[in-house]
Amino acid sequence: MQDPNLDTEWNDALRKHGILPEKKELEITQDQLESVVDSVVKQKTEERQLNELSLDELDEKEDDEDDAILQQIRQKRILEMREKQNAAVHGEIREISANEYVEQVTNAGDGVWVVLHLFQTYIPLCTQINKFLTQLARKFPSIKFLRSISTNCIKNYPDKNLPTLFVYNGGEMKGQFVGPFAFGGMKLSQEGLEWMLSTVGAVETTLKEDPRKQDAKSDNAMTILTRDRRAVQDSDDDDDDDDD
Q1: Do both 152 and 206 map to the same domain?
Q2: Backbone conformation region of residue 120, classed left if phi is above 0, alpha if psi is from -120 to 50, else beta
Q3: 162, CA 20 to 30 Å: which among 6, 43, 108, 128?
Q4: How far apart are CA 110 and CA 129, in angstroms?
Q5: What percent of the chain has pLDDT over 70?
């Protein structure tokens, strides 16, 4: 026989015609209600306390709590940390010392791009690159741009290797540009430097081609024009000598 306490259309029809008595509402005592409320409050309090623990503190509580719960909270915490790192906005170039290298470069975080410029203040190309990097830091705020006096970062680092750019992602080196010839000397433009960084994946540029190629074409055209002018001038000088 069907349970008369079930909520079905058939039972509702029988109750309507007085064949079945009205369904009795379940009664909850005050003690039962307080017990349920206390249980919910305790659970929420414990979850909040666990969520406020650091990763190291979560490790210490593994023996006292359910491993599955702790692992779930740990993964949530790691995900939150990664999201904060990926959303980090830098927007400027920061100068660091050798003691800060591990923290700022090696431990920069998963997926974080770092561009480190080794320089000396008395080298003009280094000064120019620092200026360009300041602008690029504003253009690409998700990238961490750093600079360091070369000999402060690496003892006895030779000036012939300056400027030097090291590019890292997740603490691993992804590219390096060493010495003035790697940058094309003082003819380097900000767009040219942006393109160089894009070749190793550090930035997503909207440039269609390497600006340095256009500079090279201009240099070649200027060289040809200068050579032609000299040829014309030499020819004129020869004509003057013949008149004499």
Answers
A1: yes
A2: beta
A3: 108
A4: 27
A5: 52
Please state the rounded mean pLDDT for residues 125-142: 95
* 23, part of any domain: no
Same domain, 73 and 100: no
DSSP label at residue 106: I
pLDDT tens digits for 207-221?
888 887 765 444 443
The H-assigned helical ranges of 66-210 are 67-86, 101, 124-139, 150-153, 180-183, 190-199
Q: Residue 70 belongs to what domain range?
A: 37-85
Cβ-based neighbour number of residue 206 at 10 Å: 7
> Is 198 within 8 Å of 174 (Cβ atoms)?
no
Of 55-59, 69-73, 170-174, 211-215, the one with minimum mean pLDDT is 55-59
Judge if 78 and 183 occupy the same domain.
no
pLDDT value at position 224?
A: 41
